[in-house]
Design a protein that fits this description.
The relative contact order is 0.15. The protein is mainly alpha-helical. The chain is built from eight helices and no strands. About 90% of the residues lie in helices and about 0% in strands.
Length: about 270
């Protein structure tokens, strides 16, 4: 019996591998089409600006609130450990390194993957299953440029800006806690915070945020564009956009940090 079941299991594994590589092929083709369309007129500036508003401004309050709480809580959690060594004066530098080098782009991307990525997947998915995209093609409108290119550009542009706000508000949250406990002045806190930060750290964080933003927009558009089976497909597209985006963001975080550390070691 075990020998009879093995070919079936082998067939299932082979089919899943075929599906995985087929998905990679479709994703590569989708990204290639994006880079071909993004430099080809006409340029949908009004739609890009509208999407930047949807991605950036409507996410700003959530990003700022999360950043303030993150800076405040991280400082509270770090103080007891540093107090054991009499090193509470290192708190500003520790928090700045953690927020600016890692937490700002990563947490911003994860929040936007849940909020923006699911919205893109659901929106394009609903347009796909109701045949609105096909209707745009009939009306001589390029739906890929109008719907996909504008959204990917918006996420690629706005995620770094939101990460910048996250870093600033996060440091302010840390300053509030440090000021309440040590009565540290605003100028002294930020002078100590940026003492161990180099320009290379900012460059790496910006690169992370750009890559994360591109990933969120691309995955959301791909999942929405291939949605099928009515409302069930729309829900699946929204859910897949979030899960796949977060998975890729963590992989990209590891790869970018590894490459950046290797370059610094040269």
């Amino acid at each position: 019996m075990a020998g009879a079941e093995f070919p079936k299991d082998k067939y299932i594994l082979s089919r899943r591998l075929d599906g995985f590589f087929a998905s990679l092929y479709r994703m590569a083709g989708f990204i290639g089409r994006f880079f071909k369309e993004v430099f080809r007129p006409p340029f949908e500036f009004s739609e890009i600006i509208r999407q930047c508003y949807e991605v950036g401004y409507k996410s700003l309050s959530l990003i700022c609130m999360t950043a303030f709480i993150t800076g405040l809580v991280f400082t509270k959690q770090s103080r007891p450990s540093l107090s054991e060594f009499g090193a509470t004066s290192w708190l500003p530098s520790l928090v700045a390194i953690a927020i600016l080098k890692a937490l700002a782009p990563l947490v911003t991307a994860l929040i936007c993957a849940g909020k923006v990525g699911s919205n893109i997947g659901a929106e394009l998915g609903s347009m796909k299953v109701t045949e609105q995209i096909e209707a745009m093609e009939v009306s001589a409108t390029n739906p890929f440029k109008f719907l996909v290119v504008s959204r990917i550009l918006a996420t690629t542009i706005m995620i770094p800006i939101l990460a910048f706000f996250f870093g600033g508000i996060g440091l302010f949250g840390s300053y509030v806690d440090v000021h309440l406990h040590e009565n540290t002045s605003f100028a002294l806190f930020f002078e100590a915070a940026f003492q161990k930060i180099q320009f290379a750290d900012f460059y790496v964080s910006i690169v992370k945020a750009i890559v994360f933003g591109f990933t969120i927009g691309t995955v959301g558009c791909i999942q929405g564009y291939k949605a099928t089976k009515g409302t069930m497909g729309v829900g699946r597209a929204a859910n897949s956009s979030v899960v796949i985006s977060m998975f890729l963001i963590f992989i990209e975080e590891v790869l970018i940090v590894t490459v950046a550390n290797a370059i610094r070691a040269i």
